[in-house]
Specification:
- The structure is a homodimer.
- The first copy, chain A, is mostly helical.
- Helix content of chain A is 67%, strand content 12%.
- The first copy, chain A, has seven helices and three strands, in the order H-H-E-H-H-E-E-H-H-H.
- A three-stranded antiparallel β-sheet of chain A has the order 1-3-2.
- In chain A, a hairpin with a 2-residue loop joins strand 2 and strand 3.
- Chain A is globular and about 55 Å long.
- At the A-B interface, helix 1, helix 2, helix 6 and helix 7 of A face helix 1, helix 2, helix 6 and helix 7 of B.
- The structure holds a DNA duplex.
DNA sequence: AGTCTTTAAATCGTGTACGATATAATCGTA
DNA sequence: TACGATTATATCGTACACGATTTAAAGACT
């Protein structure tokens, strides 16, 4: 009943993330974005503004991770951080014009990633559906304790 | 051609890792192990000793990540770090008796993880095979630049 | 209005990740 | 056998992650 690295699915999930990360990195470097920062940008290209916790809900992260990262993105001129006038607890994150313009590069980056997988769109959708089922189960197990 | 977070497979891979990590964490806490440290232990239960770079090959990591972590594990009394007498460049990592005894807890942890996925062994194997194909493709794409 | 609870960010400490570089041991070859 | 190239770790700086705690604003209820 000894676990073997060869058999451990978690190691493959870990490796898959590393691999995807390494494809993204050189594509994002010209934009001055890290992988996680790119995911924040994608969220903001969809809806702007977003509060810190709305971004957190999309990425599964909390303010302890997001606050420092968002400050770096603000310092880089990608976003602005402003207290919500209607609820001073919230901080609204918005794209700067420079951040918004990066949107133009996103389509090509997505195309590169799709191509890197070597799979058709239909195959990727099937795989994603399977993966999401797994995530749902594992999250339920984690919540049950 | 706008990417949407809803459609991004990379975000699901990211979420899958988070979810798996969160199942492992409470299981490993009684042993005083982090997730990554557990993966090192599994490697050493299979083969002992391993050099730093042999561990790195198994986990896709290099000395810049491993050296500090292995020092923490040494400080925790889980492993020993000794220069290889036959090649003084190499550092051999071995389990301490305490580290070796943790092996006993591993079977149950694996069982919990399998159960958390809510899938049969056959389903997991099929999924793993699919995932590994994807990883291979993505790695090739990253190496080609 | 005054107080209790809840909520949203921020802060702090520890532990990964990883590019770039440094150091020392070994190897290859003239 | 000397010496440039290669290999194995280590170090440094920056950027995530996340548990635990803090702070301040908003809501709820007397």
């Amino acid at each position: 009943m000894q676990p073997l690295l060869q058999h451990m699915l978690c190691l493959d999930l870990y490796a898959a993330n590393q691999a995807v990360h390494r494809v993204y990195k050189p594509l994002l470097a010209p934009l001055g974005l890290t992988y996680l920062q790119y995911l924040v940008m994608v969220g903001l290209w969809e809806k702007d503004p977003l509060s810190v916790s709305e971004i957190g809900a999309r990425l599964g992260l909390e303010s302890n991770t997001l606050t420092p990262m968002l400050k770096r993105m603000e310092a880089a001129g990608l976003i602005t951080r402003r207290r919500d006038p209607g609820d001073e607890r919230r901080v609204n994150i918005s794209l700067t014009p420079e951040g918004d313009e990066m949107r133009a590069a996103a389509g090509e980056i997505q195309r590169c990633l799709m191509e890197a997988t070597g799979r058709s769109e239909a195959e990727l959708l099937r795989f994603q559906e399977d993966l999401r089922g797994l995530i749902g189960n594992v999250r339920r197990a984690a919540d049950d304790g």
